[in-house]
Specification:
The chain has about 150 residues and is an alpha/beta fold. It has helices at about 10-20, 40-50, 90-95, 140-150; strands spanning about 5-10, 30-35, 65-70, 75-80, 100-105, 120-125, 130-135. Helix 1 (about 10-20) crosses helix 2 (about 40-50). It holds the Pfam family TsaE.
């Protein structure tokens, strides 16, 4: 496992980081987003979607759990915060190992359902617009993504 910490000074910088990540992901990649309310998870996902070429407006799927968007590869945006029961079967594996990339907000709500190899991103408030972003790897594919993200 490897970890990278960085600071962004604006929502636009956070979105640019996500846009860069979107340029290197492949089908089957899983990105998790954890952080305080208002820390930038949805801004990150908007930048990520832009990097995939998604044309639709992206917002948090708070009441639908999963929203799908078409881009260079499909984007499966999940917000599992409201899941009542972690063992509820939503067929998430079909998304995780499907044709697109999954971005999951609040992954701590479904730890046993997450794939072993994923890029885990945490966002923390530092100030009004500045954020600390911690990126952690959990396997070989996520490590490859982190290396490409850092050095591209």
């Amino acid at each position: 496992m490897e970890e990278w910490n960085l600071i962004t000074e604006s929502p636009e910088e956070t979105m640019q980081l996500a846009e860069k990540l979107a340029g290197i992901v492949q089908p089957g990649d899983v990105i998790t987003l954890e952080g305080d309310l208002g820390a930038g998870k949805t801004s990150f996902t908007k930048g990520f979607a832009k990097g995939l070429g998604v044309k639709r407006v992206v917002n948090s799927p708070t009441f639908t759990i999963i929203k799908e968007y078409n881009g260079r590869i499909p984007l499966y945006h999940m917000d599992v915060y409201r899941m009542e029961d972690e063992m509820e079967d939503l067929g998430l594996e079909e998304y995780f190992y499907g044709e697109g990339v999954s971005v999951i907000e609040w992954p701590s709500m479904i730890p046993s359902q997450l794939p072993e190899d994923r890029l885990s991103i945490s966002l923390f408030h530092l100030g009004e617009t500045s954020r600390k972003i911690t990126v952690q790897t959990t396997g070989s594919r996520s490590l490859q993504l982190l290396k490409e993200l850092r050095y591209e």
